[in-house]
Amino acid sequence: MRRFVIGQAKNLIDQTRRRPPQPHHHNNLRLLSLLRPPASDTTPVSSPRLFSSSSSDMSGSDSSTSSLPVTLDSINPKVLKCEYAVRGEIVSIAQRLQDDLKTNKDAYPFDEIIYCNIGNPQSLGQQPITFFREVLALCSHTALLDESATHGLFSSDSIDRAWKILDQIPGKATGAYSHSQGIKGLRDAIAAGIEARDGFPADPNDIFMTDGASPGVHMMMQLLISSEKDGILCPIPQYPLYSASIALHGGSLVPYYLDEASGWGLEISELKKQLEDAKSKGITVRALAVINPGNPTGQVLSEENQRDIVDFCKKEGLVLLADEVYQENVYVPDKKFHSFKKVARSMGYGEKDISLVSFQSISKGYYGECGKRGGYMEVTGFTSDVREQIYKVASVNLCSNISGQILASLVMSPPKPGDDSYDSYIAEKEGILSSLATRAKTLEEALNKLEGVTCNRAEGAMYLFPCINLPQKAIAAAEAAKTAPDAFYCKRLLNATGIVVVPGSGFRQVPGTWHFRCTILPQEDKIPAIVNRLTEFHKSFMNEFRD
Amino acid sequence: MRRFVIGQAKNLIDQTRRRPPQPHHHNNLRLLSLLRPPASDTTPVSSPRLFSSSSSDMSGSDSSTSSLPVTLDSINPKVLKCEYAVRGEIVSIAQRLQDDLKTNKDAYPFDEIIYCNIGNPQSLGQQPITFFREVLALCSHTALLDESATHGLFSSDSIDRAWKILDQIPGKATGAYSHSQGIKGLRDAIAAGIEARDGFPADPNDIFMTDGASPGVHMMMQLLISSEKDGILCPIPQYPLYSASIALHGGSLVPYYLDEASGWGLEISELKKQLEDAKSKGITVRALAVINPGNPTGQVLSEENQRDIVDFCKKEGLVLLADEVYQENVYVPDKKFHSFKKVARSMGYGEKDISLVSFQSISKGYYGECGKRGGYMEVTGFTSDVREQIYKVASVNLCSNISGQILASLVMSPPKPGDDSYDSYIAEKEGILSSLATRAKTLEEALNKLEGVTCNRAEGAMYLFPCINLPQKAIAAAEAAKTAPDAFYCKRLLNATGIVVVPGSGFRQVPGTWHFRCTILPQEDKIPAIVNRLTEFHKSFMNEFRD
Questions:
Q1: Which residue among A153, A369, A413, B315 has its CA within the 20 to 30 Å range from the CA of A361?
Q2: Which CDD domains does UniProt cross-reference here (chains A, B) (predicted)?
Q3: From the CA of B484, how many Å to the nearest CA of chain A?
Q4: Residue B198 falls within a domain, yes or no?
Q5: Which of B237, B272, B274, B273 is nearest to B252 (CA)?
Q6: CA-CA distances (angstroms) from residue A50 to A213, B383, B386?
């Protein structure tokens, strides 16, 4: 087989480069990890230096880089303030361990790192939905549609669908920038999917397609936040996209606490209290962010609760930012997902009554197409001049990626009964969702069996968020190591088991309580081993620090 | 053939919806366009209402929407300040015309809208490079790699390359979030491509993959700008991404004027003058943005000029933001693209000497994969702690889309001699680039033949930016219509010919001069008709307004 071009280019360069080859980041990291003890909770890691070894020219001493113009003191302080624990310190440690495992297998009591820190199903072995990928491949290389052999390789409805999608793109050009809100025909499909879901009309001109839900959230924060006097009500615990985005845009996160004792209940009295508190500090609250199903908390709101939330927003003049990316992830028979738009419309509230933005993503659900970066926001109840401003900001980035746009349309209009793919599609979808429900239940039960741990059920989404009642000695040890007690626990867990979870402090929590977020995404055959390793670790941890 | 599911869903909803169907945006627009005269320069369009008819609930009167919480007065003023002419008013008018053309063909002296406003090659018929799309399709639907029929449909090197790429992705999961900077193996390929291009080492850990170049530019602006006291030196005329991004991040655009008389020359004396001027206003200039080859101006910088720019940045402590997205688009034998990193390294400046960010995109070059949204920035000469901050901001958005990442790696490591695809790849690439050169030349010559028009040659990039010496009567008519004189000209051109170009005022220009930007992207067989229509229009315009 031909030699891979990268190797060829590298050789060429090695022969011609004017300076000696630079040591690689990877090698340096391994060297560093050999020079210091394996990452442990006693290693000061509060300011990880991810890049300290990436460039050999930069030896890291301040004097050697003093001529460079950009310093931490001169950059935007909003960037400094921003935090994102889901890919924070614990993941950096895990990546170092993973690198070292390759050559140093015997040094660790585990043979792989299991990433339960992030909702990234396909990284843990979940297979994509075949129909979606067939359509994507056909739209990526449209010459396939002219080949007769294609009919033997693809389902007939994927071929039909690819044609339909291409017909909706001017010139069938999947390599062209689209309309700034996304391809009109795909927005038509999404609007039809929303209508089918909700039983209320949806307008394709209300859809803004985005590279995942995150850019949509940023866009709304950018619109709504002028200064730290603008507040956004956010659930605590929250998905740290919200705190990060608010920090980057210089606003104030106004927290409202979910009630862990009632299964992470969202109480209107708490919203009122926090709103008043913010007002008394001179903060104008612009919006209420609600994550339903909850992240990291996994609860599914009742329709009655949602009606109260809608009324609260209407009364208080708040934009309702509805993070509904887990709308397909509901695992319990007594709960059902209702979109906030459906709830608002069923209360008789229309475009003139409430400002509502619903975020959807192709990264979650049963599809889990995180890497494709697709999603949309449905923007309703804004005046035309404000909508023009949203359109303008979308235009500056030209458009979201077309593969993501295509997948977003497919997710909202999947195969229907009678279609060639329908049976296999349903089997794949139900297989994934029922397995996720099983895994959620198994992990929840295992967590609840641990000493000092209580864990609400994951009614939906992809996470468990157990509360750990840590012994005083463990808290003292964490303080001595200058780390939060739950981060201390999570690092110990990682070092003992290779399991990566995110400390509750990364999501915020009631002060004095400690949690971690663990995804339910490892494949079913891995769950028993994970439960065993977690259980053994926890016993040993509690014994070590028992008061 | 089966009925398309969107149609089915729409029918279902039409039968069950609780309110009467809402009129569609599209219908409303057509109605509006019938109620008013065809968009012309005498229609006040300084504040286009793109969405005024999108939702029937919002009839547009202020009183009917007064209960909505968000108003132009309450949103972020930075958003209000941001402008992006490339998709601005002229495009809105063009879209209205295009809609009306469908049913009202006889009302116009042309039968199609030709979008020369934006560098979007595939929207105007440019075909994607076959090898790139083959690899993309195989990575989109990996099951194809197990089918023997695939070998009849794909080149052997595309199959090899797809395997190589999949081997570099943990679990071969193209649907998973990647490392926040992009898949390591793809960054290796990009770094090798940079090394092959420049003859100097490149580090994959310096590569941050992005959804096109724009998000990279935003990321750097976000890092460097804390307030309006932070300035960014930008060329005038400039690609309005820069002014838009600086406005959104609340900084100050510090202009430096390119010298039209010397082929849009970049003079160091002008940089110094503007830097001093900014300092005297209390502005700290953080960075110098250079677009090479130039957009909208098409010049290619000489290596000597680049050396002076590098020295200027080093001496003044400025980050050099090098927009090098047109690096493959050079059309004249006497000019050659040199990356700023190569220039800096060849001067002996390393990581410790100069802070340099190079932006690259898959949207331009001969590939023109705008819709795939891929690109990268190569970040060199930053301290490790500042790089951590860039990494953190990248992490908040998780990663750029994997299809775009794959394409970015392919663009930087295309087929090599001996590969199955090599001959066809070279034929496609050279066909596109030589045709672009022909089109640039033809259009430039045609423009220079027009009365009062002078046009520098397009040495590179995808645009011509002619200067139009407008008669005083035309300027007076524009003033009466409350529009900039070049916008007046461009709207007249659109209404007379269907050709969409962007007024120079959208890019900024020396006050009192007037220009427009026209892409060189219409297919060759359309160029003669475009030249004819443009020439006829210009004659008639000049005759109408002759002083």
A1: A153
A2: AAT_like (cd00609)
A3: 20
A4: no
A5: B274
A6: 27, 11, 10
The answer on A46 and A80 residing in a single domain is yes
pLDDT tens for each residue of B92-120: 899 999 999 999 989 999 999 999 999 99
A418 occurs within a structural domain: no
The strand pair at A467-468 and A453-454 is best described as antiparallel
Q: Are B143 and A136 in contact (CB under 8 A)?
A: no
Longest dimension (CA), chain B: 73
pLDDT in tens, A182-235: 999 999 999 999 999 999 999 999 999 999 999 999 999 999 999 999 999 999
Cβ separation B199–A21 shorter than 8 A: no
A324 with A173: CB under 8 angstroms?
no
ipTM of the complex: 0.88
- Render A48-99 in DSSP notation, one character per residue: --TTTTS-TT--S-GGGGTT-S--TTTS-HHHHH---GGGSHHHHHHHHHHH
Question: B65: pLDDT confidence band, cut at 50, 70 and 90?
Answer: low
| CA gap A201, B25 in Å, rounded | 13
Assigned token pair, B104: 């009202």
**What's the rounded Cα separation, in Å, for the pair A43 and A481?**
7
The answer on A196 and A149 residing in a single domain is: no
Range of the domain at B58: 28-126+429-547
Question: Residue A143: closest CA among chain B residues belongs to which residue?
Answer: B130
* Cβ pair B205:A371 closer than 8 A: no
CA–CA min distance A315, chain B (Å) = 10
**Domain holding A202: CATH number?**
3.40.640.10
CA nearest neighbour of B110 among B535, B533, B536: B533
Q: How is residue B303 written in tokens?
A: 């290596």
